DNA sequence: CATGAATGAGAGTTCATTCAT
DNA sequence: GATGAATGAACTCTCATTCAT
């Protein structure tokens, strides 16, 4: 089992990083939120960057794990792809802070960004695998698999974030009601993007 | 005509901000890149934040202006929507640095982010207007206009950025060849998302 | 006649310096208050310091000139001394901002402070001359002339400033009513300080 | 016991602030004088202003504490008042730097000045209490207690500062010899100001 | 005489990181 | 394992002064 203190730090860090972004997040705030001394963080993590990377990997891993669960519930690639979209949107709504970091910190040339993108790549891989299987079974005719995966990922991401940040204050009940339109929107896009070859 | 020095600063700032993000960008670097003294920037802009907001507004305005040009070339909402997608992808490829900032700095609660999102909202508005007109003419059956606009915007954004940052080094010739698959991918998604109601 | 622009600058500078003190006063503010360009100030004055010294000299000179007028109205040294006190208090009330600078900028080792103190010394000289004449005529028995002059000057200064700054907002009517008690207070102190030798 | 480092900083700060005034004092200089890093000051004080206010409060508190000691040594209000004057002058001579700040930074509308004036008000209160008691016992006939307290405070302050800054260099032996005339001067003023009503 | 854009040295403040306890 | 006082490099922003027009 992971050390208890590390959990404390992780939980605090995800809040603070997501609230402020990597640069604006202060180790002081993380320490205070975790209820430990600042030195303690450095006892467990070499640097702010290492803490961040560990955190992001864990966050994306959760998304991946949930996605894997969803995949098992469906047989056909079509259903699986739709399930992935639904999962991603639900996950974003439930982890709005992480979602923001996913877009904010994913692009760039810094080490942490490259590492983070690699982890996101694992998730995109999952989508691509379903697509390839669908192509193989003749269920899809996707010509540009990586592009299509990115597009779906981006559509789902921005739909949720735009919704989250267009509200004055995040109202859990309200956002819950907003999920179905978002899911349906992306779902419809996905379905066309993969089905036939001579534009819908 | 705008003052020459301000142009110098603007051009330098877009480079530096895009390279490093808002927080990591240093006013010293912007000044050096612009070939002016640091104080000169502060003579023309009240703060780093004001410079950034001015810059982003100008950048998004360029995207909007180009989009308006494209819209004039087409009559039917369908063609107009596809033109908007194509325009956005081309614009991103040509202004990769701005594109990155568009996602990186758009979400958050800080003043500059709220202002920036408002400007992006102007662009989304453009998409939505085409959608509403298409709905009116019976060409589209879009149930959730804002969500669909966000999804298209997000799909086009992430497709390009993922491509740009998956390459070791940005190779202009290579990226030029990559445009058509990206355009086609999003175009297909768009076409389904708007055409008929009982999934494609 | 002094150049018109110089007057503009002088009048603006006294306001700004008195409002903010030497260090906090900005040449930009003075220029704006004077309605001239910043460069214009430097056309007429070598530096901020030179402007300040010129200004202070002029301010104290006004106090001295008024004092000289008052002195002419009275014959006996006793009446003259009391007139000086009354003059100083009235002058302070009417030029509260200058009064503040008089204490704020008078003590220190910087060139401008030394020069300023020298000018204030001219005013103290005036007091001392009356004292010496009073001593000669047997009207006073002042043992320590410079100390006594300083004490009177200090008493009058602090009484007014303490009053001015103890009020939430400076109310001209209110402060006008407060003059007599201040004058009487210092006047009584003065009278004893100079009359007999075995404590009053 | 207060933290050792804070003492280091306090002692250095009083030197530097008094030497240069609030605005000209540099945090770098204070840090160097204290033998700590600049960041260390900010670990203990939120800002330059907070450091200054803390310092001034402590300085005036010392004056107040000493004054309270002096008051205990005397019974009659007359003796007590004279003791206060003597104490103030001695204190100023021994703490010339603080004395200068007392006048330089006491008047103005900035937060630190208002707070500082409030602390000085505590000292003036002490004087006023003695005056009121003297009035009650019939020993004094002071009509304007606050004005008289201010006047005495101002007289004592300016007498010392004028003396300190009229010397080319501060010579401890010389200034020691100058104390009696200063004390006597103010003492005589005080005695009249409070004794009888029909001018001395 | 007058202007105001440009300058750059220098100020206060922040914060990731270290290390003696 | 854990602490938190101490650090100092680096940052944004200020403003007196200059000078070409």
Describe it.
The structure is a homotetramer of 200-residue chains. By secondary structure, chain A is mainly α. The first copy, chain A, has two domains: 1-45, Homeodomain-like (Arc Repressor Mutant, subunit A); 53-194, Tetracycline Repressor, domain 2. Helix content of chain A is 80%, strand content 0%. Chain A is built from nine helices and no strands. In chain A, helix 1 (4-24) crosses helix 6 (96-104) and helix 6 (96-104) crosses helix 8 (145-166). Chain A starts with a helix and ends in a 6-residue tail after the last helix. In chain A, 42% of the residues are buried. The mean pLDDT of chain A is 89. Chains in contact: A-B, C-D. The interface between A and B is large, with 50 and 50 residues. Chain A binds a DNA duplex (21 and 21 nucleotides) through residues 3, 5, 26-28, 31, 36-40, 42-44, 47-48.
**Overall geometric form of chain A:** globular
Radius of gyration of chain A: 18 Å
**Could you give the distance between the termini of chain A?**
52 Å
Oligomeric form of this entry? homotetramer
What class do helices, strands and sheet pairing of chain A give?
mainly alpha
CATH architecture of the largest domain in chain A: Orthogonal Bundle
In DSSP terms, counting alpha (H) and pi (I) runs of 4 or more, how many helices of chain A? 9
Biggest interface, residues from each chain: A-B, 50 and 50 residues
CATH class of the largest domain in chain A: Mainly Alpha
Low-confidence stretches of chain A: none
Task: Describe the largest sheet of chain A.
Answer: none
CATH superfamily of the largest domain in chain A: Tetracycline Repressor, domain 2
Tally of structural domains of chain A: 2
Proportion of beta-strand residues of chain A: under 5%
